[in-house]
Write a structure and sequence with these properties.
This protein has 270 residues and is an alpha/beta fold. It is built from 11 helices and 10 strands. It has helices at 2-27, 38-41, 87-95, 117-132, 149-160, 175-182, 188-191, 198-202, 222-231, 249-253, 255-267, and strands at 29-30, 46-51, 57-63, 72-76, 80-81, 99-103, 142-147, 165-169, 209-214, 235-241.
Length: 270
């Protein structure tokens, strides 16, 4: 009996201890690259460097707007790949005359560092600083666009620095809520180091907010994206793309996604 109990304790320890130790490897799925030159991926784009307040230098692409006073879009990626995968979105937004900044988080796209909630918050602050500084985009003309995990990242930024508009693509309620969908046998909420409380934060963000999600999303349940929309303090509208799964091209740079960003940019005279 003692041996049996010891085996059970060992199994439980492994079941909980391994996810605790390796959880960030499950949350963050960086692609180290190689990342192509900016101009090769997006016409008119240039390679730039973002400097974080903890001393990291992050690779990014900046596409200037057609006119000096045009709105700009800060794009925050999801948890996988690198900025090269978001080139179609940058091209589509640039074709609409908008300035666009694509960047990779720490640990992604050949960047130094390891991703975490605190680290990504530093990274997106550096992206905003560049867009307003070297990018020349007025603070009241910036739209934040976040894809999945990136929706959580820009929501956190919007609490500190409200944008002109906020587009959340496939947002989750919080990281524990979406983690519980995929690991229902684990005490996810008790284990997680990174929280990303999206629904809680949008309740206090008084800027036009559009939520875009796929009707057949197998990664972030559509009900969670709708719950974020329900909690948004200044919901502009909800765009559901019927039949679209989380990583389908239509949710990466489809007409509905691009139109949602352009619409919010135009609300402020863009």
């Amino acid at each position: 009996m003692l041996v049996g109990a010891a085996v059970v304790v060992l199994l439980c320890t492994l079941l909980v201890g391994l996810p605790w130790a390796f959880q960030r490897h499950l949350v963050y799925l960086p692609d180290a690259g190689p990342v192509p030159p900016a101009a090769q991926a997006v016409p008119g784009a240039r390679d730039v460097v973002l400097e974080t307040d903890d001393g990291l230098r992050l690779g990014a692409w900046f596409v200037p707007a057609r006119t000096p006073d045009a709105p700009g879009v800060l794009v925050a990626n999801g948890n996988g790949g690198h900025r090269g995968m978001r080139a179609p979105l940058a091209r589509a937004l640039a074709d609409e005359g908008l300035a666009v900044l694509l960047f990779d988080y720490r640990g992604y796209g050949g960047n130094p560092g390891s991703p975490s909630e605190e680290g990504l918050a530093r990274d997106v602050r550096a992206a905003r600083d560049f867009l307003l500084g070297d990018g020349g985009v007025p603070a009241d003309r910036v739209v934040y666009f976040g894809e999945s995990l990136g929706a959580a990242v820009v929501t956190g930024l919007a609490v500190e620095h409200p944008p002109a508009g906020l587009v959340l693509r496939s947002p989750f309620v919080d990281l524990a809520a979406v983690g519980s969908e995929h690991y229902p046998f684990l005490p996810v909420r008790a284990l997680l180091r990174d929280r990303y409380p999206v629904a809680e934060r949008v309740r206090g963000i008084e800027v036009p907010t559009t939520v875009v999600h796929g009707g057949a999303d197998s990664i972030v349940p559509p009900a969670q994206s709708r719950a974020v929309a329900d909690d948004a303090a200044a919901l502009h509208r909800v765009v559901e793309v019927p039949g679209a799964d989380h990583n389908d091209p239509v949710l990466l740079a489809g007409d509905e996604v691009v139109a949602a960003v352009v619409e919010l940019a135009s609300l402020n005279g863009g």
